[in-house]
Amino acid sequence: MKKGELVKIKLIGILQCIAMYCSLSTVAISQTPLSPQSDQALLRGIYKELVEINTTDSVGSCTIAAEAMSKHLKKAGFDQNNINLIIPDGGPKKGNLVVTIKGKNSLLKPILLLAHIDVVEANREDWERDPFKLIEENGNFYARGAADDKSMAAIYVANLMRMKAENFIPQRGIVMALTCDEEKIPSKFNGVEYLLKNHRTLIDAEFAINEGADNLVRSDGTKVFVAVMASEKVFQTYTFEVTNPGGHSARPRKDNAIYDLARGLVNLGNFAFPVQLNEVTKAYLEKMSKFETGQLSQDLLAISKNTDSKDVFTRMSDNPYYDNLLRTTCVATMLSAGHATNALPQRAKATVNCRILPGASVEEVYQTLQKVVANDKIKITPDHEAVKSPPSPLTPKIMNTVSSVTEQLFPGLPVVPTMIVATTDGRFLNNAGIPTYGITGMFKDANGGFIHGLNERLPVSSLFEGQEFLYRLTKGLVSE
Fold first, then answer.
1. Structural domains in the chain (count)
2. 47 vs 98, 150, 296, CA distance in Å?
3. In this structure, are 294 and 154 located in the same domain?
4. Could you tell me if 59 and 203 lie in one domain?
5. In terms of residue numbers, what domain contains 291?
6. 352-362, pLDDT tens digit by residue?
7. Which residues make Cβ contacts (< 8 Å) with residue 351, sequence separation at least 6?
8. How many other CB atoms are found less than 10 A from the CB of residue 269?
9. CB 78: neighbour CB atoms within 10 A?
10. Are 58 and 101 part of one and the same domain?
11. CA–CA gap between residue 177 and residue 195 (Å, rounded)
12. Backbone angles phi, psi at 395, to 5 degrees
């Protein structure tokens, strides 16, 4: 079977699931039956401990965090032989934790529960609160990693401990992997990539449950749908660089490296990649048009029907949520230039991060960037080789189980297959033949919880909803 045919089959499967599971009417959600208070208390303690362990790349340690989680599992009665602390050679602070629960049926591959325990950098002086202290205020947990992704990691640990206390033995085995360096691309020590290369048998699975589900919630807190992320954009970073001999600042010259770079970046800022729809995004936008109202609803429907209206695309560009689903994006994220206050710059550099639509050509994106900056003095170099990620097939087993748990906890709420505009470690698993799905059961606020930004947060209720959702989902997926 050709690769294109395989992707087409997967897209057809996604479309079928959209038709089956998407009815985007807003519904009143009854009170969610949450986990027992003792399990909530256990989770809160694990969550607090994990959040307050600094796991940034600059000064933190994933190894310390992985060791802390392994201690909880040992105390809960897990056999040491089923707890594996794996530290890459040359990366003493980049430890990963892999824990297994064997199933009754050895012929069935296990499922993999994946969460990363590293976090992006956070400067204390910029935050209103200490980013490495779990603070509860206004119905939210605030901290770096409160949402991305230590909430999911802590939930997994607490839920495995709950299952252990219940003496639960699944039909299909369970593997939990808490990994490092998801936030650092490229990385010599990415946990998932390292485990696949060096310990594949430990994490080999039928499929994986991961982060990445953008469950939609309105600004008033109304839940709209539960997402199953089955596709993601391709991550690619470029360095834009201009060099020249420089000189004395008292004798300015027209070919200033900073000015040359700046003009190219302004061109990039004014440029938008063309809209490119696939069958998944077409179907998704059509369904969302039934939920949205007014002009936005009309525009979404028009786009799903292949409109080429400039007015529609212009209006959509002002809506980041939808606009980023429609096109590849490239944005400047870092700058550096010059070496002295009284010297002309000999070098000016910018980091440009691209999120490329699945199926789009990475090479064509590179060529487009060269045309957009329109300056041969700007050298564009990819920082790494892009890792493409095929969409995961939305099988009845996955969708039926998610829909069942959703109906139990959020009656009437639809389940919607989605594409994430960001990138996760699922790309490594998908390429290794382990389909990966973003499913969390947690609803961030309407601003996305300020993930990667200042004052990252997660609603307190969402943490415990996610705990019960993932507990029931995991048991449902392994009890066949």
1. 3
2. 18, 7, 39
3. no
4. yes
5. 278-316
6. 999 999 889 99
7. 237, 238, 239, 240, 332, 333, 334, 335, 383
8. 12
9. 18
10. yes
11. 9
12. -75, 155
Residue 103, both tokens: 């199933």
User: What confidence tens digit (pLDDT) does each residue in 159-195 have?
Assistant: 999 999 999 999 999 999 999 999 999 999 999 999 9
Query: In this structure, what token pair is assigned to residue 304?
Result: 């799903």
Contacts of 414 (CB under 8 A, 6+ apart): 21, 22, 23, 24, 25, 225, 226
Across 246-251, average pLDDT: 96
What CATH code is carried by the domain that includes residue 136? 3.40.630.10
Tell me, yes or no, whether 226 lies in a domain: no
Residue 98 is assigned to a structural domain of this protein: yes
* Same-domain status, 110 and 56: yes
Q: What are the pLDDT digits (tens) for 280-300?
A: 788 788 878 888 899 999 999
Residue given tokens 């596709």 in the structure block:
231
Token output for 263: 């003009």
d(CA 214, CA 228): 8
Cα 347 from chain centre: 34
- Of 185, 200, 191, the residue nearest 233 (C-alpha): 185
Together in a domain, 250 and 296: no
* Same-domain pairing of 349 and 458: no
Whether residue 189 sits in one domain with residue 48 = yes
With respect to residue 49, please indicate whether it lies within any of the assigned structural domains.
yes
Determine, yes or no, domain membership for 413: no
Can you read off the two tokens belonging to residue 130? 């200490």
Rounded distance, CA 109 to CA 103, Å?
A: 9
Spatial contact of 22 and 414, defined as CB atoms under 8 Å apart: yes
Residues 169 and 244 in one domain: no
Reported pTM: 0.87
pLDDT attached to residue 13: 53
Q: What is the pLDDT of residue 26?
A: 45
